[in-house]
Write a structure and sequence with these properties.
alpha+beta, Diaminopimelate Epimerase, Chain A, domain 1, 2 domains, 8-stranded mixed beta barrel, two-stranded antiparallel sheet, 7 helices, 19 strands, globular
């Protein structure tokens, strides 16, 4: 890492761009920067990396394991450090496997003060990554909280889902899950981003995950809006997909749920995230996965 000639921010010479959570045929995905962290860098430096590489998020791989055996990974957007990033984890673990000669890497990652299991497997279309999201807390939003988010999204009276209702889901950072009745309603959404960012900050939300539930084995669909952290719309949000699996498990009464949720179509970057949820002694836990394609380094 080095300082620019005009005394400006430091720059990373080696950044790998990974398309995380691509569709099954390898198309699309969420472009994510992955690089080795530099202890000399400041957080302001780290916030510049994603934008410089043309991505919304950047993952920084720590130089050595933590005392508990987890491999440190930090995530930044242009405006903030994140306590967790699902598609960033898919990208980071894909790069870690690619740096070895192994066909499969089972490891542990430390992010946001939590250490969790990860698995990365070489597949013909890319590298498949799964990680344990942990416990997901669920609650019903307060009426003013729900109304502020729905109004900022610009939903019409015909858009809400006929039976499903919004929930707050927190695998760490809380976000609102907002169901709509079909994919046409989902694609029509044009949020008022300034109002949405203000509402998310007011209620302490990361953002909102607007979705059409999976039905009869068909994939669901979703769009993630998080302008409060500098991401107007995310190509793929893996953690929110895990939250949706937890919500569906909670509302159906099933012991386990497995879902696929397609994302990114509104941005021209088709993506897909897999998630499963199960009930345990401490509550609902989830596992999230996606396929990654390592694009290039620069």
């Amino acid at each position: 890492m080095r300082q620019s000639g005009n005394g400006g921010p430091m720059s990373w010479p080696d950044v790998t761009v990974v398309d995380a959570c691509v569709r099954r045929d390898g198309r699309g995905g969420s472009p994510t920067s992955v690089t080795d962290d530099d202890p000399a860098a400041t957080d302001a430096d780290r916030r510049t990396v994603a934008a410089a590489a043309g991505t919304s998020h950047a993952a920084f791989l720590g130089p050595r394991r933590a005392p508990d055996g987890g491999w440190p990974v930090r995530f930044f957007t242009a405006t903030a450090e994140l306590s967790g990033c699902g598609h960033g984890t898919v990208a980071a673990q894909a790069v870690r496997l690619a740096r070895t000669s192994l066909d499969e890497l089972n490891d542990r990652q430390l992010t946001g003060g939590r250490t969790f299991d990860t698995t990365a497997i070489r597949r013909p279309a890319g590298i498949e990554v799964w990680f344990d999201q942990g416990l997901v807390a669920l609650r019903h939003p307060e009426p003013d909280e729900r109304d502020a988010i729905v109004a900022a999204l610009g939903l019409t009276a015909d858009d809400p889902h006929p039976t499903d209702t919004p929930r707050i889901a927190a695998p760490g950072a809380p976000r609102m899950l907002v169901p709509v009745h079909d994919r046409s309603a989902l694609l029509r959404i044009r949020p008022r981003l300034d109002r949405l960012a203000a509402a998310c900050r007011r209620y302490g939300l990361l953002g909102c995950f607007v979705y059409v539930p999976p039905v009869d084995g068909r994939p669901g669909a979703a769009r993630m809006f998080a302008p409060a952290i500098g991401v107007d719309e995310d190509v793929a949000n893996a953690n929110s997909t895990g939250c949706l699996a937890a919500h569906l498990l909670d509302t159906t009464g099933a012991r386990t749920v497995e879902i696929e949720v397609e994302q990114g179509d509104a941005l021209g970057r088709p993506a897909s995230v897999l998630a499963s949820a199960r009930r345990g002694p401490a509550g609902i836990t989830t596992r999230v996965g996606g396929l990654a394609v390592i694009r290039d380094g620069h």
